[in-house]
Specification:
Quinone Oxidoreductase, Chain A, domain 1, 312 residues
Length: 312
């Protein structure tokens, strides 16, 4: 069979086209996608053509790793069942067209072990599980009572702040854009210049701004840690003497793993992590061209969701 898919033919040139799907094996499942999210980190770089060298990089490609749908076929060895609602963290099922990360399509074939069963009542909010898992991985071993700093109040920063609260810690969030300082829930958001603190034990940057590392090091306590959890298109550098004086540590938080997905799913199911108030824009997939531009250009757009339910 084939699927309707978002294809980035080259930077800033997007189309909706039908692509043949790789046949499913006994350990695979076929999923009819209901919704997919647009990432303002990696997908923005793919869209603009500024993505650094990355495994599987090249055009044309199918983007997306935030998809939710219903299992319509499952192999005999698959651990999911027909009719189950699942989160799909991307797929590679489009033959010669690269799947990077391959989730923006009406139907996907993926190894069933990679699918994450979710509560159908979450609806399109289940698309946020990938970002929640990314935030959870960045959180690391944060201790109750800690007072860390988070840089950036987009969806990833908000999820990280919520997870920090769930861990019994008290985050402060920096945000340069005044329009993004609203929407807090139990934590403080302010401009960097309005924060006098210079003793943060942990600073997690989710801004993707490669130029701000020296400024963050200046706010660290001795022996403090900076966690880089954004996706950076430019090389990162910092002045050595201030970092040396603080004996600073820098940790890069990598891609989420299955255990991170399992952990945040349990937190959501247990009512300890809310996904409310994070999706600001929803459009039918026929409007994908405009949706991508809005997601990347409008600061009021926290998360854009494509609705595939009426896709032909």
């Amino acid at each position: 069979m084939d699927a309707l898919a978002v294809i980035l033919k080259r930077p800033e040139h997007l189309a909706l086209s039908r692509l043949p799907l790789t046949p499913a094996g006994e350990a695979d499942a076929l999923v009819a996608i209901s919704w997919s999210g647009i990432s303002t980190g990696t997908e923005r770089l793919l869209w603009s053509g500024r993505m650094p060298p990355f495994p599987g990089m090249g055009y044309p490609l199918v983007p997306g790793y935030e998809s939710v749908g219903t299992v319509v076929e499952a192999g005999a060895d698959a651990p999911v069942r027909v009719g189950q609602t699942v989160f799909v963290p991307g797929a590679r099922c489009f033959g010669t067209v690269r799947g990077l990360f391959g989730g923006a399509a009406s139907h996907l074939v993926a190894p069933a072990v990679r699918l994450v069963p979710v509560d159908a009542a979450l609806g399109d909010k289940a698309c946020l599980i990938a970002l929640a898992a990314t935030a959870y991985r960045a959180l690391g071993g944060l201790r109750p009572g800690a007072t860390p700093l988070i840089v950036g109040h987009g969806v990833l920063g908000r999820l990280l702040a919520r997870l920090t609260l769930a861990a019994g810690a008290e985050p402060t969030v920096w945000e340069l854009d005044p329009t993004r300082r609203a929407g807090t829930s139990g934590y403080t958001v302010l401009a960097p210049d309005d924060d006098p603190r210079r003793d943060y034990a942990v600073i997690t940057d989710v801004s993707g701004d490669a130029s701000g590392l020296d400024g963050l090091i200046a706010r660290l306590a001795p022996g403090g840690e900076i966690v880089l959890a954004g996706f950076y298109e430019a090389p990162l550098s910092f002045a050595f003497p201030p970092a040396f004086m603080r004996e600073a540590r820098i940790r890069i938080s990598a891609e989420f793993r299955p255990e991170d997905l399992a952990a945040v799913t349990a937190l959501i199911d247990g009512g300890r992590l809310s996904l409310d108030g994070l999706i600001t824009h929803r459009v039918p997939v026929a409007q994908a061209q405009d949706a991508y531009r809005t997601a990347f250009a409008d600061p009021a757009c926290l998360k854009m969701i494509l609705d595939w339910r009426d896709a032909a």
